[in-house]
Write a structure and sequence with these properties.
The structure is a homodimer.
Chain A: H1 4-11, H2 15-23, H3 30-43, H4 49-56, E1 61-66, H5 73-87, E2 91-96, H6 101-113, E3 118-121, E4 137-142, E5 150-152, H7 154-168, E6 172-177, H8 183-196, E7 201-206, H9 211-219, E8 224-227, H10 230-242, E9 252-254, H11 261-264, E10 271-274, H12 276-292, E11 301-303, E12 305-308
Helix pairs in contact in A: 1-2, 1-3, 5-12, 7-8, 9-10
The structure holds a DNA duplex.
Chain lengths: ~325, ~325
DNA sequence: AATGATTAATTAATCGTTTAATCAAATAAG
DNA sequence: CTTATTTGATTAAACGATTAATTAATCATT
């Protein structure tokens, strides 16, 4: 590999001058800069990241810890972060926390040992990851998580959906959660509850076993099902079809997150999107400030979600119990 | 941060001795090793990756370039790679090639500039990424791609599915591809064609507009639809339901890749899984050899796929045209 | 007891880059 | 014409770890 030393030799100056010329610091005459630049890219010089990291104490690399990636939302966040990081000249080292909290902790440690400048953690549901004191960290979870610096407004998203469903005239609704240990899902349920308003009857069910109760509840008058994720909504849709109920004619259905499958299924799913781009940008803004020890990064910011109305929701066939 | 130098000072020896004691090289007395070890973890010493990388010329970091992550299979590969890499003491730096070939090329360059020891590239469909001469690279694509060192056996997977469908007695089948530019999908189609055998009538359709033709082809006698991905299969399923055809009673349906949505939908999708774990392991084996300049890494290996029979396939209602 | 072999530690150089301190030459000011 | 000041470069140290070469001390051998 060609180093600054070789350039120095070629041009006949000291390495310090080469460094100064290339980084634009110190005093170097204009035409010397020119000669050095020319020589550098003629020789195909690429600065050594290791040497820079060693000298500066900064790797320009961030660690990203993600939960099990089966949920297609996480890759989207990862991608947004990757794009945003790249724009800031930062690299992203991935760490998988697959499964339990202890592995998550291990992943954090490994990344720190690799010399990352900062960490972005999307916690396992129900866990509280801890980063070493001296490593700047941003946690992306949900607003009601006290430690969180950045998150989508899951409650707000729920409100949007709830208001939409209530606005269509539904007044007996099933709320479907996947795992009650997840604070995100709790917040979504809370939001939906708020959005629906006090007048609407609500049945909150958790887990896949809930599918079995759909039949009974619908026959007792429920006219809409609101799931805490698109995937769950797909499952509910399948369950409904088994008992010959159609969406949205018999039952309206909503999801969360706007996954690709939401447009692949029929009817296309009414759902709520989070602006992963904005979350990524803001996470990095905060993290950059923390790393540079800059004052008062705007903490606890919440990124609004947006309603995507498609064809899985409609007015109820007739008012059920009122 | 605590360095080797501070330990040396504490214990009252030279840094060389500390280094030797900690790495187990050179000559150090047993109890000196003990004292140094003790002091090291009392002070909370963590070796500097930057310094090591500078001295050794190896970063122990691999670059992973992935196409647009909307396809949920890629995260799964990323996760498998991440786990396999970790077991080998390697880190993974991600690069997003979102969209076009030129960005993919940029992503490769950026990773190389960050000093990765090697690259793993999952190419954009229809592109030929190039890594700089001196950077060991493994490409994960499909066996018919000449440059590829590792891949799932997409043709074999297709054969498995084709044989399964033919074995059930179907003899008029629709093959559904998403994008004909993708070599992977071409191979899958080829495999399915082979697996079905010469006696079966095949209609090959590409793209989402193909959904419109399903009605006609089925009424003309087609009894099964085989898609090149689970997502596409979900789309087909929705299209079928719109024209009141049920799966598998009226039409059998198969996918590819065993995505989570395959079990969320009803009936659960018959599909084919790739062993991402094995692909990851083998990729890293090959890459490690290339990096260490070891001889003859087993090239062009193909990892078999496995059939997952669920409830979206059944014997045709009655033999259509024979 | 003198020589050689072995053991345990140290010295010093190195990886590639940055940067504070220094220096010589040229220019400006008195 | 001497004294400041500015300019453009160099020297040398530093970042943290590794390692070949070296030295000093211990032990065994004849």
């Amino acid at each position: 590999m060609v180093s600054i030393k070789q350039i120095a030799q070629h041009v006949g100056v000291s390495t310090a001058t080469v460094s100064n010329a290339l980084t634009g610091k110190g005093r170097v005459s204009a035409d010397m800069v020119d000669r050095i630049r020319r020589c550098a890219d003629q020789l195909g010089y690429r600065p050594s990241p290791a040497a820079r990291a060693l000298k500066s104490g900064q790797s320009n690399i961030l660690g990203l810890v993600m939960p099990d990636l089966t949920n297609p939302l996480f890759p989207r966040i990862a991608q947004s972060l990757s794009i945003a990081a790249e724009a800031r000249g930062l690299g992203i080292l991935i760490g998988d926390s697959r499964g339990d909290a202890s592995r998550q902790q291990q992943a954090v440690m490994r990344l720190v040992d690799r010399g990352v400048d900062g960490l972005i953690i999307v916690p396992q549901k129900g866990t509280s990851p801890e980063a070493p004191r001296h490593v700047p960290t941003v946690i992306i979870n949900t607003a009601s998580d006290q430690r969180t610096t950045v998150s989508a407004d899951h409650v707000g998203g729920g409100i949007l959906l709830g208001a939409h469903i209530a606005g269509l005239g539904h007044n007996d609704v099933i709320l479907l959660g996947g795992d009650r240990i997840s604070q995100v899902q709790q917040d979504r349920i809370d939001g939906m509850t708020q959005g629906l308003g006090a007048a609407v009857t609500k049945h909150i069910l958790w887990g896949k076993s809930a599918f079995d109760q759909l039949d009974r509840l619908v026959s007792q008058g429920a006219t809409a099902i609101m799931a805490t994720s698109d995937m769950l909504a797909l499952g509910a849709h399948s369950a409904l079809m088994q008992i010959s109920l159609s969406v949205p004619a018999d039952v309206s259905l909503t999801g969360f997150d706007d996954l690709p499958l939401g447009t692949a299924m029929h009817p296309a799913l009414t759902t709520v999107v989070q602006n992963t781009q904005a979350i990524a940008e803001h996470s990095l803004d905060v993290l950059s400030c923390l790393i540079l020890d800059r004052p008062a990064p705007p903490l606890g910011r919440v990124i609004p979600m947006h309603l995507v109305t498609r064809h899985s929701t409609a007015a109820p066939r007739r008012a059920a119990n009122s």
